[in-house]
Amino acid sequence: MKALKYIIPTCFLVAGIALTAVSAPFIDDIDELSIGIGDGKKTDFEVNLDITQEQASAITRLDISADIVDVDIVKGDAFAIKCENMVEDKLDVNVDDGELEVEYDVVRFISFGVSEKSRGSITVTVPEKQYEELAIEGGVGDIYVNGINCSVLDVDLGVGDSEFTNMTVSSCTFEMGVGDCEIRDSVLSKCDINGGVGDFTINNTSLTGSCSIDGGVGDITVNLIGDDYRVKGSSGVGDVVLNGEKVDSKAGDGNVVIDADCGVGDIRINTGV
Q1: What are phi and psi of 212, to 5 degrees?
Q2: Torsion (CA) 203, 60, 144, 118 in degrees, nearest 10
Q3: How far apart (Å, rounded) are the C-alpha atoms in residues 102 and 92?
Q4: Rounded to 5 degrees, what are φ and ψ at 122?
Q5: What are 31-35's contacts with CB under 8 Å, separation 24+?
Q6: Left, alpha or beta for 98 (phi > 0: left; psi -120 to 50: alpha)?
Q7: Which pLDDT tens digit goes with each residue over 163-191?
Q8: Please, what is the average pLDDT of the chain?
Q9: Cα–Cα dist 102/20, whole Å
C-alpha cells in the first residue's frame, strides 16, 4: 500500500515527539524546534499560472499530488493556487494538453520538534464547470474538496483525514490510507471503495450506479438518500449490516447494487435517510 511510504516516517515523527518531550527541560528555546519531513525554507506564496484564457478554458483534468501538506480544492472565479508554509521550489505546477498538474514533493529527511506550524497548506481554486477527471494523491496531511463536479474522481489517500462535499461524480475510486474519510451531500454514480486504517463515511448522498466496497481495518458507514438499493454482503471479522439487520448474502430488491466485502471493521448501510 502506498500509505506505507508515509507510515514509516510518521512512526519516526512520533518517536521524535517522545524524545523531544524527554529533552524539553534541557532546551532553552523550544519554540524554535519543528516537526517535519523535508528540506528548504518554508514561506507563504501564490503561484502565477501564466496561462491564457484559452488555455484556462481548455483545462478539463486536475491532477493533485502532495506529500507533507494539507490540500483544499474549492471552486471560484478562476484558477488560482495559494500556498502557506511551503517550500516554493518543491512545488511543480504545469498546464499541458488540458490538464492542470500540481505536485508537491518534500520527502527528504526527518527533523524532530514540537511546532504545529511545520505542515503547510495549499489551496487550489478552480472555476465551476464539469471536469473530465480529478485525481488526488495524498501524503501526510488532510484533504478537503468542495463543490467540484467531475466525470471521474480518483483518490489515493495517505496519512490524514479527508472530506469531500457537494460533488456530482459519474465514477469514483477511493483507496483509503491511514485516517478517516467522509463524502457528504453529493451524488455518485459508480463507486469503488477500498478500505484502509480508518473509518469511511458517506452521508446524505444519492447513489445512482453500482458500488463496490472492500472493507479494511476501520468501519465503513453509508447513509444513502432513497431506498432503491440491493446489497450483496460477504462478512469477514466485521459484519455487513443493512438498516440494522445483518446481511448474510444479500438483502433488498432495488436496482442499484452494492457489493460489500467486509474486512476487520463493519460495513453499515442505511437507506432512506
Answers
A1: -115, 125
A2: 160
A3: 6
A4: -130, 130
A5: 31/115, 33/112, 33/113, 33/114, 33/115, 34/111, 34/113, 34/114, 34/115, 34/117, 34/118, 35/111, 35/112, 35/113, 35/114, 35/115, 35/116, 35/118
A6: left
A7: 999 999 999 999 999 999 999 999 999 99
A8: 86
A9: 34
Of 118, 140, 156, 169, nearest to 68 (Cα)? 140
Q: Are 176 and 200 within 8 A, CB to CB?
A: yes
Give strand pairing partners of 42.
87
**Cβ atoms within 10 Å of 117's Cβ, excluding its own:** 12
Could you tell me which of 126, 32, 109 has the C-alpha nearest to residue 68? Answer: 109
Question: Which has the closest alpha carbon to 122: 99, 139, 97?
Answer: 139
Of residues 240, 238, 245, 239, the one with CA closest to residue 258: 240
| Cα–Cα nearest to 121, from 106, 102, 141 | 141
Map 130-149 to HEC letters. EEEEEEEECCECCEEEECCE
Q: What is the model's pTM?
A: 0.83
Q: What is the pLDDT of residues 94-139, one digit of tens each?
A: 999 999 999 999 765 444 443 445 789 999 999 999 999 999 999 9
How far is it, in rounded angstroms, from Cα 248 to Cα 232?
Answer: 8
Q: Say how far residue 37 (Cα) sits from the centre of its chain.
A: 20
